[in-house]
Known about the structure:
- By secondary structure, the protein is of the alpha+beta class.
- It has helices at about 5-15, 25-45, 55-60, 70-80, 85-90, 125-155, 165-220, 255; strands at about 60-65, 95-100, 105-110, 115-120.
- About 10% of the residues are buried.
Amino acid sequence: MDTSLRTAVAHAVDFLLQPLHTSYPAAQLNQARALLEFNFAEHCAPTWQSRDPSYGSSSRRLSLSPGAIPPNCIYAVCLQSHIRWSDWIALLGNYALDLYVDPGCVSVSLPGDAEHVTIWGRRKTLAQQLLETDLGEENELFALIDDEVHARSWTGSGCDTPLARSSSSLSHNSSHSHSSSHSSSSWSADYSASSSSNSSDASQRHRSHHGPRRDRRKSGRIYVDTSRTDVTAYDGGKTGVLTGGVMLGCVSVAQCRI
């Protein structure tokens, strides 16, 4: 028999027989103990895996109730040891419970309750505790990395897939292109005619605009002021800087008449 199985079975049997010590003699209880240990080992051995305590746990569960016959491994002990089940379950508290015998742990729970009360648990070594701590930190780190990678791939995949153009949109664009080309040709012809007409009108306006200016220049009177007799001499094209401003302009009409 596996050592872990023998140890777990022994603690489960202690839990069941402890309340009976005040009601039954030691010889009767010793017989019941030997039968229980053998029957429990036979019941748990097919699904027992020391490296995976949770494997087969539901099949090793023993459901105990005041209003029902106990499992065969316990009921056989009642018959051979002459212990009434009604007295036994009453000493255990007279309420329904589930007994779990797993590698490294023996626990009980109320039917339908996910919370277990540990009766016995194998104490872990310091190396095992450190290993579990390291594994927990590694799992947490990998979970954070996985979340970050998924978040980046989700935000970066929005524009990777090009949109396919449907045949209907292509035909629509083709017809639109033909109509646009036709409209462009018509507009070009109209624009050419309009531009030629506008250019002829502009040339006529240009001639009519410049003609009167030549006439006005020809008809303008030239005035020479004979009263100014001072001559300014230039030294080789050099000029001086005047401190005052020089006003240039046309002589008023009154001076012309004088």
